[in-house]
Amino acid sequence: MIPPWMKTAKCGLHGVRHPFLIGLEPIGKYGGAMKRIVLTGGSGLIGTALHDSLDSDGHHLIQLVRRTPQHPHEVAWDPGAVLSPDVLAGADAVVNLNGASIGRLPWTPRYRRTLRESRLHATRTLATAIRTLGTDAPSFISGSAVGYYGDRPGEDLTETSSAGDTFLAELCVEWEEGAHAAGENARVALLRTAPVLHPQGVLKPMIALTRLGLGGRLGPGTQVWPWISLDDEVRAIRHIIDSDLSGPVNLSAPTPATATQIGRALAARLRRPFLVPAPSWALRLGLSRDAADSLLLSDAHVEPRALLADGFEFQHPTASEAIAAAID
């Protein structure tokens, strides 16, 4: 059923009436092709920044929300229920960023279920609706994470590398399988996103400790952390929307950095000491083994080969540049 706020015209799949094709100019206000995009997870850090970026350039957005819609571009949905394909008809791309925050700690057994269900239910629901559209299916740009690779010290991890065996790696495998259910008519790109170096991202707890003078080595400190700036994350997603890239795409900066290098760069930016170590056993005790091993102690040198081969250029190729851009 089409929501009553939508302006309609008879066009598209089986003569369906849908919101995207009514009175839209084929050219955006800055001269580029205007995109019609459906977005889920638009209230999170990445989703909010992506929404604002696309909206500021004049693209047409429909945001799926789990609450009562408050704006004309919002449509209510239940990620665990059937979604009418009419809502997606006419879109160029569906960008799926839905999922509970992995930064909420500790990962209790109950919260691990929430992490899993919030991703799998939404992804499968969207994939089913997209598959129903057949040859009119939009591109499906679906979230995943570099946690797919698990703990792999000494390896150079690319999009062709195998999955790891951590909780987060196993979740990413299921998550990506759910996206592929969109069918052969849809271009499916999987956003294997690295932790975002931002005050509301992976830096949030580190900033609090560092400002208190409690910043220091996490575990051995030599583990390589994949990372990306928020600006480059948004730019990379937009690049993928506009490109022909499909399959897994690593959204991780090209310059590797260890946990200690990132911690020291943050401490230098905040003009605070970097002295107090947190041993691995303490991190596992305080955060749960799953969370500590997946987020803080895993060693994964993730290379963004697909993006670089497709001509993408990073604005913040080093961790110190990303931290300087994120923290005034």
Automatic annotation (TrEMBL):
Entries under InterPro entries matching the protein: DUF1731 (IPR013549), Epimerase_deHydtase (IPR001509), NAD(P)-bd_dom_sf (IPR036291), SDR39U1 (IPR010099)
State the superkingdom. Answer: Bacteria
One GO BP annotation is:
cell division
- Please list the residue ranges annotated as the DUF1731 domain: 278-325
The NAD-dependent epimerase/dehydratase domain is annotated at 37-243
Q: Which UniProt keywords apply?
A: Cell cycle, Cell division
Q: Which SUPFAM superfamilies match?
A: NAD(P)-binding Rossmann-fold domains
State the similarity comment. Answer: Belongs to the NAD(P)-dependent epimerase/dehydratase family. SDR39U1 subfamily.
Q: What is this protein called?
A: Cell division inhibitor
Query: Which organism is the protein's source?
Result: Microbacterium esteraromaticum
